[in-house]
Amino acid sequence: MTARVNRKGAARWQAGHPWIFRSDVIEAPEGGPGVVRVIFENRVIGMALWSPASQISLRMLTREETDIDAAFWRQRVAAAVAYRESLSIDATGYRLVHSEADGIPSLVVDRFGDYLVVQILSAGLETQRPAIIAALADLATPRGILARNDVPVRRNEALREEIELLMGEVPHEVEVHELGVRYLAAPWTGQKTGAFLDQRENRVRAGELSTGRALDCFSYHGSFAMHVARRASEVIAVDSSAEALGRARVNAELNGYNNIDMIEANVFDYLREEEAAGSKYDTIVVDPPAFAKRRDSLPQALRAYKEINLRAMRLLEPGGYLCTFSCSHHVTPSLFREMLEAAAADARRPMRWIEARSQSHDHPEIVQIPESTYLKGAVLQAV
């Protein structure tokens, strides 16, 4: 099959971004999703995954006209595995394949000990599933592979949302070891693929800085709280989900921590109440869900990010640390910093910028693919 694209689409690929949108396809391939040759002005510019129902119609794979077969996918998977091995990750839970950033567009693979959880997020890639799963099974040697394809983005690809066991067995809970901390991932029912792996280095850093009384906002399963509790005298973990806090309690027991209090509450309300009560903390972690899932929700999201950071800044003891994050792709690093500057101004607290933070190294970022960079953070200190 062949797709013809216009100058804009070809230029995007030439600049290093693998997406070509439907509006830039001037002649669509005949037939359903799969692998296609891409042509611009009668010249082959590469091979791509074709998704006829998606706005992202083409996901480019290579600039050469070549067979996209089992050997091709094995080579791409092998490169991803080798990169993770080069990182010497001191954890049993990490990202094995980070989609476009590993040259395998729309594929996510997370490793939890002996088990893999995959997400196949485009119709074009779905047609390549057998070869990719075979490569993962051979190169990563898992005891089981689970497909967590229960994500709304698959609707844009005319694909079913489903959870499917692809190989072996995968338990409902897997114990993960992360630089001295243990926690339970939930491959079948947890958010994302069962746990948040992109904050691993940030959790460790928050633990290094923690002291005294600490507050973990949007705690979820308590992954930040577990690291912070190693040095803090007391940790308050706040989340609106009773189910998430229940798992956080299990994780605290798993680590033998008795200095973590779980509070079920709306974080915005809790911060306002704590400020009114005159409460103070030595360490605060703010790790909210994505407030800006669409570009048109960005102004409202920035207001929400500003409010929670402003409240957190006011609750800090002098010399205390704020570890704050945003996983909204549309909130760029520059917008994130501008928001923190505005929050500090309104909080009337001088805040020392200690360092910028980003996603874990097993979630690689490609300079020409801004979508591969989504998590940004900062460590601030109250002066």
Structural overview:
By secondary structure, the chain is of the alpha/beta class. It has three domains: 2-62, Roll (Archaeosine Trna-guanine Transglycosylase, Chain: A, domain 4); 70-174, RNA methyltransferase domain (HRMD) like (Transcription Regulator spoIIAA, 2-Layer Sandwich); 198-382, Rossmann fold (3-Layer(aba) Sandwich), CATH 3.40.50. The chain is 30% helix and 31% strand. It is built from ten helices and 20 strands. It has helices spanning 7-14, 70-87, 123-126, 129-140, 200-209, 223-228, 242-255, 267-277, 298-315, 333-347, and strands at 2-5, 19-20, 25-27, 34-40, 43-50, 58-62, 93-98, 107-112, 115-120, 144-149, 162-168, 174-178, 181-185, 213-217, 234-239, 260-264, 281-286, 316-326, 351-358, 376-382. The strands form four sheets. The protein has a seven-stranded mixed beta sheet with strand order 16-15-14-17-18-20-19, sandwiched between helices. A six-stranded mixed beta sheet has the order 2-6-5-4-1-3. A hairpin with a 7-residue loop joins strand 5 (43-50) and strand 6. The longest helix has 18 residues, at 70-87. The radius of gyration is 22 Å and the shape is globular. It starts with a strand and ends with a strand. The model has no long low-confidence stretch (mean pLDDT 96).
